[in-house]
């Protein structure tokens, strides 16, 4: 090769330049479709990533679900305490690919209308990030709904569903 300059090792490391501070990345998951995996060791309580996306109302969420053909996309919506939702499918980042698990190593924390994924336990590089979605689904938990929200986390305590148990009048 002609004209190729030899750079010092510290400058030629383009891999580290392309992803300067990433602590996680999206890969295929054994739980479901794609998942998010730690790229480095993460300590309990550490903030890993913000759950970003467009803020939408409940009505708009329902409209978008219908448009996309069913409740499966529901898992891209994160409900906030004030009744609004974050649509991770609209302008969201890698966080929308974090899978649900019944024995999670992360938790979602809401702060002033923003949502952050924090580590619950020490996480090793290469480990998949997971949190408990605790999805509230007010409509009847029919067989189709149960199928759409089935959990495949593989934990001995797996409840088989991403849906939180119905809780009387609490929530919506
Ligand atoms: Zn499970």
UniProtKB/TrEMBL annotation:
GO cellular component, one term: chromosome
A GO biological-process term: methylation
Domain SET: start-end pairs: 22-134
Protein's cellular compartments: Chromosome
Pfam families from the UniProt entry: SET
Principal cellular location given in the protein's record: cytoplasm
One GO MF term attached to the UniProt entry: methyltransferase activity
Domain called Post-SET: residue spans: 147-163
Sorted UniProt keywords: Chromosome, Methyltransferase, S-adenosyl-L-methionine, Transferase
InterPro entries on file: Post-SET_dom, SET2_Histone-Lys_MeTrsfase, SET_dom, SET_dom_sf
Annotated PANTHER family: SET DOMAIN PROTEINS
Protein's name according to its UniProt entry: SET domain-containing protein-lysine N-methyltransferase
